[in-house]
Every structure is written in structure tokens, then in C-alpha cells.
């Protein structure tokens, strides 16, 4: 039976974010959804790629300097300049490659190193993909005027995304959200996660109020609470 992961923010922080969303939506017809996640992907494929690269590199080095490494093995094993057969050489090469592969996988169990080794473009692409998926599941076309917008924050990758529904995207260019992203990142750099989300909500709310003013009969169609996944 799986257990839920501990919350990244306190109940008080959740209440503050919810209040900020409610306040921002009070002046516009937009619906703001906030999602906070520990990571957007496990990057198992990247870890396997690094392990395969380490194994391949070991084989290349062994093939370039066979005498040195075979002599080194003899010294470590305490043998006297063994006459290596082809089978023994291939067995040694396979063993070295396997050990390099497994060793590289094992050291990547330390999460800071694993995420450090993920190329930045891969991180950005995976975070964007997860944000779009979350938006499609939780916000896209779920409002009457298609005015849903997602503020998505992925902690381990140090990435954030803002994804808007059709009506918003048709009137607001993607670069307009840069101010909201900058305000959020400024707080995140100071270690204030909740304040970062709130800053983004306030900036997004101001933009929505400008382009999509609230109607008298407007109803709250999406949850105001911060979602942790």
C-alpha cells in the first residue's frame, strides 16, 4: 500500500495561496489553478543513458590500452604476467562494462547528482510536458469561457510554467507572463515557495483583470486551493 508524500507547504501557506487565488479571481473572469510538485519526471531514461555511456567509455579505453589494463589486473590479482586468451579478454571487458554500468546507476540514486546530470533542455521539456498534461486534465476547457490558466512549479528541476486556455492565449502573448514568472522566481531564490506562488498569482490576476474583467454572474468553476502532486 502506497503512502502519500508529505506536503511541501504548511496548511497556513496553503490557505494564503488559496486566498490569493480567490482575490485575483475576484477581479476577473479568469480561473487560476496552482500546482506544486516535487519533480515532473523520474528521468530513468537519462540515468540509463549515462550508465550506458560509462560502460561504452570503459570498453573504448580498454580497447585502446589493453596492455596497460591487463597488466594492471595482473598486479591487482597478484598474478605473473598472465597469457590472456581471447575468451578471458572478452570476459574481462564484459565484466568491466557491467560494473561501470551498475556503478553509474547506483551513484545516481543520490538525487542531487541524478538531477544535476539531466541536461537543462531535457528538464525544461519534461516540466513543460507535465504542466501541459496537468492543464489538460484539470483546467483546459473546463470553464464556460475557456479562461482557465495554470501556474505550475516543479521544485527539483527549478522550473515553472504558465499554461493558458484558448480564450486567454488568443488575447495574451506568452511573453506577457514573463513578469509573473520573474516575480515568482525572485521569491523562490529567497526560499519563499508560498510567497513565490502568491506573487505569480497576483501578477497573473492583474493581467486577467485587464483582458477578462469579471461579470456580475461569474461563478467559481475551478478550485482555488494549491494542488500538490
From TrEMBL:
Descriptive protein name: TPM domain-containing protein
Keywords: Membrane, Transmembrane, Transmembrane helix
TPM domain residues: 145-206
Origin organism lineage: Bacteria, Pseudomonadati, Pseudomonadota, Alphaproteobacteria, Sphingomonadales
InterPro entries: TPM_dom (IPR007621)
Keyword Ion transport set for record: no
Superkingdom: Bacteria
Annotated source species: Novosphingobium tardum
Cited Pfam families: TPM_phosphatase
Membrane-crossing residue ranges in chain numbering: 47-69, 89-110
